[in-house]
Amino acid sequence: MADLSVDFVGIKAPNPFWLASAPPTDKAYNVERAFREGWGGVVWKTLGEDPPVVNVSGPRYGAIHGPDRRVIGFNNIELITDRPLEVNLREIKEVKRRWPDRAMVVSLMVPCEEASWKAILKRVEETEADGIELNFGCPHGMSERGMGSAVGQVPDYVEMVARWCKTHTRMPVIVKLTPNITDVRKPAEAARRGGADAVSLINTINSIMGVDLDRMAPAPNTDGKGTHGGMCGPAVKPIALNMVAEIARFPATRGLPISGIGGIETWRDAAEFMALGAGTVQVCTAAMVYGFRIVHEMMTGLEAFMDERGYARLGDFVGAAVPNVTDWQYLNLDYAVKARIDQDLCIKCGRCHIACEDTSHQAITATKDGVRHFEVIDEECVGCNLCASVCPIEGCITMEPLVNAVDRRTGRFVDGSYRNWTQHPNNPRAQVAAE
Ligand SMILES: Cc1cc2nc3c(=O)[nH]c(=O)nc-3n(C[C@H](O)[C@H](O)[C@H](O)COP(=O)(O)O)c2cc1C
Ligand code: SF4
Ligand code: SF4
C-alpha cells in the first residue's frame, strides 16, 4: 500500500491533505472533528492582534451554482478570526497536544511592523505548533488596512516580512501568496529571498459574484451595499494550477516547496497539484460544502492511484508533470490530430456540428443521405478540440493523432518529426537564425 505520509519543510503529517486556513479551522471543535475523519493537518484560521476584528452579520458568503446546484465558485467577505488571540492560542496548544502526529500550522496576519510580528511569533511558539503561514493573500477587508494582499502584492514587503519571521522564530515559515497579481513568480521569488521555507497558493481571487438587479447592488449584499470578496472553489483550480506550475518551473523559484490550494475536491485534483510540484495540498471550499468526510475519498483514491502506477511514496510523482509544462513557442508544430466521433455513443444532438460550423472550421457534417449524421471532414479539421469540449457525451469525440499519414487538410505527411516555432520556416526570425 502506498505511503501517503509527508515531511513538508520539516512538518510531518500522515497524509498531504490539510485544511486551509478558513472557517473549517477556526476552532478546536472543528479541527478535532476534522482530525477524527483523517485530515493530515490544518492551517489554523488566521490569527491577528487583539482586539479581534468584527465581521458583518449579513451574508458573508456567495456562490455560483451549476445547473444541478453544485457549487462551482464560492466567495466570501469574511475577515480573519474574530475570536480573542488568547482563546485561539490555548486551543491550538491543546489540540496539538492531543493530536501530535497531525500538522498544526498557524496562519498569521498582523500590521507590517517588525515588533508586531516578533510579538505574535513568540506567543505562537509557546503553543508548540509545527509552523506558521503568513497570510499575504486575503484580498478584502484586511487589505484595506494594509495587510493581506496589500503586502502580497509588493514583493519587497513579502521579502521583508518573511525575513523578520525567519529572524524571530525557529518554526518553518510558509508564505501564502495572493493570485491578485500580474506575475505570481515575483512574490514567490521575494519569499525565497526573505528566507521562507515554502510558499502556499492560491488565496482567493477578487470578485463580485453577481448583481441584484432589484436592489441594484452586488449580490449578496449587507443592508443594500456590497463589496468585492475573495473567490475560491472548483472554478479557480485552473488559475491555481497555472500559478503552481509557474513557480515550479521558474529558475529563481524552482525547488521551493509548494503547498497547493484552490478548488481541490477530490484525490484527482490533489494529484494534479502534486504532479505540478505541490508537496502538500490544502482544502477549504470542498470541506465547507461537503463536510470533513471527503478526506476518505481523497486518501483511498490517491492510494489506489499510487498503487496502480507503482508509486511507493508521494515523492515518486510530485513534480513529475513540471518538465512537460513549456512555453508556446516550443510546442511541436509538426504534430497533428483529427477529431473522431464514436457513432455508437453519438446521440445526434448536433452541438458539435453547430459549434464547428459557426465558430470553427466547418468540419462536421449535419446530414448524410438526408438523415442526421455527424462525421468529421478531415480536409477541414484542425484538431482544435472545440467539438469534444461541447459534446454532452463523455468520450464520444476523441482527438486521434495522425501517425505516418497524410494530413488531408494540409497535404503534409505527418512522420512524427518535431519542429517548433523557433525552428519553423514561417518564422522570419528562425530563418535569420538559420542563415
Ligand atoms: C470563508 C472563507 C474564509 C477564509 N479565510 C481565510 C483566512 O482567514 N486566511 C487565509 O489565509 N485564507 C482564508 N481563506 C482562503 C482559503 O484558505 C483558500 O486559500 C481558498 O479558499 C482557496 O481554496 P479552496 O478553493 O479549496 O476554497 C478563506 C476562504 C473562505 C472561503
Ligand atoms: S476539432 Fe475543431 S475543427 Fe475539428 S471537427 Fe472539432 S471543432 Fe471542428
Ligand atoms: S455533440 Fe456529441 S453527441 Fe452531439 S452530435 Fe456531436 S458527437 Fe454526437
From TrEMBL:
Keyword Cell cycle, does the record have it?
A: no
Protein EC: 1.3.1.1
Recorded GO MF terms = dihydropyrimidine dehydrogenase (NAD+) activity
Report domain 4Fe-4S ferredoxin-type positions: 337-369, 372-402
Q: Which reaction does it catalyse?
A: 5,6-dihydrouracil + NAD(+) = uracil + NADH + H(+); 5,6-dihydrothymine + NAD(+) = thymine + NADH + H(+)
Q: Which Gene3D superfamilies match?
A: 3.30.70.20, Aldolase class I
Fetch the CDD domains from UniProt.
DHPD_FMN
Under the heading InterPro entries, the entry gives: 4Fe4S_Fe-S-bd, 4Fe4S_Fe_S_CS, Aldolase_TIM, Dihydroorotate_DH_cat
Alphabetized UniProt keyword annotations = Iron, Iron-sulfur, Metal-binding, Oxidoreductase
Task: Cite the record's note on assembly.
Answer: Heterotetramer of 2 PreA and 2 PreT subunits.
Q: Which family does it belong to?
A: Belongs to the dihydropyrimidine dehydrogenase family.
PANTHER family the UniProt entry points to: DIHYDROPYRIMIDINE DEHYDROGENASE [NADP(+)]
Q: What does this protein do?
A: Involved in pyrimidine base degradation. Catalyzes physiologically the reduction of uracil to 5,6-dihydrouracil (DHU) by using NADH as a specific cosubstrate. It also catalyzes the reverse reaction and the reduction of thymine to 5,6-dihydrothymine (DHT).
Protein name in UniProt: dihydrouracil dehydrogenase (NAD(+))
Q: Which organism is it from?
A: Chelatococcus albus
